[in-house]
Amino acid sequence: MTAQSPFTWRAGGCHCGGVRFEVAVPDRVEAQSCNCSMCEKTGFVHVIVPESRFRIVRGRERLTEYTFNTRVAKHLFCSECGVKAFYRPRSNPDGWSVNARCLDEAEGLEIVVEAFDGKNWEANAASLAHLSKEPA
């Protein structure tokens, strides 16, 4: 990110603090509330970003991976507290999905949450593909 970047690095992490991350997002961010079997049960609110705008700053060794169905999505949980603060989504394997609820501070950040029909994932996943691409 340059001094002229429209993005601000924001910190977040799991419940116990063992896993910490940073994500660069604009002041207004699009997020998705998904109704698939995983997200609906955990309350994950997706903020999907490109690889270049995400970094794990502590606790990589604490992460436990869970995959199911196609095994493309890499669900990463803190092995201590069990919180999934971020993961590699099947819809955007070239980026990251951060749980908006795991950000430390949302001051000055407008999070616009839209419903995403993950129960019908195959029909809707393409609508998320642009989120892991750098803006033109």
Short note summarizing the structure:
The chain is mostly beta strands. The protein has helices at 37-42, 121-124; strands spanning 8-13, 20-25, 28-34, 45-50, 54-58, 63-66, 74-78, 86-88, 95-99, 110-116. The strands form two sheets. It has a seven-stranded mixed β-sheet with strand order 6-7-8-9-4-3-10, with no helix packed on it. Strands 1-2-5 form a three-stranded antiparallel β-sheet, with no helix packed on it.
Overall outline: globular
Count of helical stretches:
2
Largest sheet: number of strands, sense, barrel closure:
7 strands, mixed
**Domain tally:** 1
What CATH architecture do you see? Beta Complex
Write up what this structure looks like.
The chain has helices at 37-42, 121-124, and strands at residues 8-13, 20-25, 28-34, 45-50, 54-58, 63-66, 74-78, 86-88, 95-99, 110-116. The chain has a single domain (8-132), classed as Metal Binding Protein, Guanine Nucleotide Exchange Factor, Chain A (Beta Complex). The strands form 2 sheets. A 7-stranded mixed β-sheet has the order 6-7-8-9-4-3-10, with no helix packed on it. A 3-stranded antiparallel β-sheet has the order 1-2-5, with no helix packed on it. Strand 1 and strand 2 (20-25) form a beta hairpin. It is built from 2 helices and 10 strands, in the order βββαβββββββα. With 136 residues, it is mostly beta strands. Helices cover 7% and strands 40% of the residues. The longest helix has 6 residues, at 37-42.
